[in-house]
Model the fold of this input.
Amino acid sequence: CDDDEPVVQEVRINLVPTYNGQILEFNTDYTTQEGYTIEFTKINVIMTNFSHNGNELFASGVYKYEDDSRVLWEGPGDYSEFPSMTSNIGVPASENHEDPSARPSSDPLNILNTDDMHWGWNPGYIFLMIEGKADTSATQNGQDLMNFLYHIGKDDFLVPVSLQNLTWTQINSSLHETDIYVDMYKVFDGDTADIDMKLERSSHTMPGQETLSNKVITNFANALSTE
Done:
């Protein structure tokens, strides 16, 4: 081993779901602003073109809570070049309709890596998937559970995001990581538009669901923060 060989610097981008100030866990009860009891069973998201001042760190990252509750992307890079970031939630139209099986197996957007986050060639990728169960009854006795499901995709729902003041932590001599938080409470209690899952409990981004689809993915983007 050549001790003079330079160490390849790597970075890790974590996505950390929270709920109203608490680290979120699956199959755990939480309370919405309406007083509904809910639990989450799926949180998946695709982020693309993670950059700072035109310098791209990665082209695409796929986050699936059930596979890894933290890591969005890990690979070579210099953390000091990314004090802030811009990115997209979703896949740009120029790539959204390509054959996902034709991508290299190492590409996060390969069909083996996205798996259920793809509708087929024509509609393209599912940018954001949120699923769970909720008790929206007046009694809140846990006997009237319903499923909620939001699968948001299609070109019109690509959403840009930007975050300032990324905080980088040194893990070892070659790896630094930063945490990006998403407050799932704010996905339903949005800055400008609330989602009442008793009345708005499902979207597959079909015609007629545009308003709800837009609220879900916009609220998700607005719920991202660095702390």
Remarks:
- The radius of gyration is 18 Å.
